[in-house]
Write a structure and sequence with these properties.
Largest sheet: 2 strands, antiparallel
Number of strands: 2
Strand content: under 5%
Order of helices and strands: HHHHHHHHHHHHEEHH
Number of helices: 14
Helix content: over 70%
CATH topology of the largest domain: MetI-like fold
Structural class: mainly alpha
CATH class of the largest domain: Mainly Alpha
């Protein structure tokens, strides 16, 4: 019986693999084509889209002129701005998410369930719906064209709070109770017990905050119109001007901007997977 079960699992795994491999290849093809376009001269970018051939993904003439022109211009400062904003957002956002998740998972206070319900409902509200009035408020507070104005909206991430709360619910309450009996404050419980046990989930929450901030376009466009404060997504859009579109630099910038989160996700994929696997906590 066990042998038949093992064979069935192997066959199911093989079928899943035959489905996963083509799906993975299809998801990677747009990025490969963008990389190919970034390595082509401008006049060859769209030359081999139809009919499809191996030249569609493999350029006949390989050139790094697009990347050289891109990094020699203002785009490099936009990338630096994106890195600064994303780093500050991840540090502050992960800390804020962890403290909020700890309060929602461990502390007993009136309205905790209602507050968590409001948090979950906030996922359904698109940021675009509040971006313009929020930008007006930030301008009134003199936070236009500042790093603070770019960072603040990104530090309150409901999904990160949700993921960390679910992980904290899996930690035995007896650990916190024993620490409290020994005289440890709630801050001490959070710092010395919950944080050390939740490193994979902290990495996962940090990645969520990072991806949301890194790909942000509308908010930086509204709150940081100064060329010196532009971030990478806005700088890429600027290659489409009134007199034409520089597709070569646009694709090169897209590859560089997409490569940063891709590299980070590859490095921390194990922790991210572990954080998602630990979110099935109970109330």
């Amino acid at each position: 019986m066990a042998a038949h079960t093992g064979e069935a699992e192997i066959r199911a795994g093989r079928r899943a693999l035959w489905i996963a491999i083509p799906a993975a290849l299809l998801s990677v093809l747009p990025l490969l084509w963008a990389l190919s376009a970034a390595l082509r001269p401008g006049e060859e970018i769209f030359a081999h889209l139809y009919p499809l051939s191996w030249h569609t993904l493999i350029p006949e003439t390989v050139t790094f002129d697009n990347f050289t022109a891109l990094l020699g211009g203002e785009f490099r400062w936009a990338m630096i701005n994106s890195v600064i904003v994303a780093f500050c957002t991840v540090v502050l956002g992960t800390f804020l998410s962890a403290t909020a998740a700890f309060a929602l998972a461990v502390l007993k206070f009136p309205g905790r369930s209602a507050l968590f319900s409001v948090l979950v409902l906030s996922f359904l509200i698109p940021f675009e719906a509040i971006a313009i009035p929020l930008a007006t408020t930030f301008r009134a507070m003199d936070m236009q064209n500042t790093y603070l104005g770019l960072v603040l909206p990104g530090i309150g991430n409901g999904l990160a709070i949700f993921l960390l709360r679910q992980f904290f619910l899996n930690i035995p309450p007896s650990l916190a109770e024993a620490a409290r009996i020994d005289g440890l404050s709630w801050w001490g419980v959070f710092r010395h017990i919950y944080l050390p046990l939740s490193r994979p989930s902290l990495v996962g929450a940090g990645l969520v905050v990072f991806v949301f901030q890194w790909q942000s376009f509308l908010w930086p466009l509204l709150i940081a119109p100064d060329p010196a404060m532009k971030v990478a997504p806005v700088a890429i859009a600027d290659f489409a001007g009134e007199l034409g579109v520089d597709y070569g630099q646009m694709f090169a910038g897209s590859v560089l901007a997409a490569g940063v989160p891709l590299l980070i996700l590859l490095v921390f994929q194990r922790q991210f997977t572990a954080s998602l696997a630990s979110t099935g906590g109970k109330e």
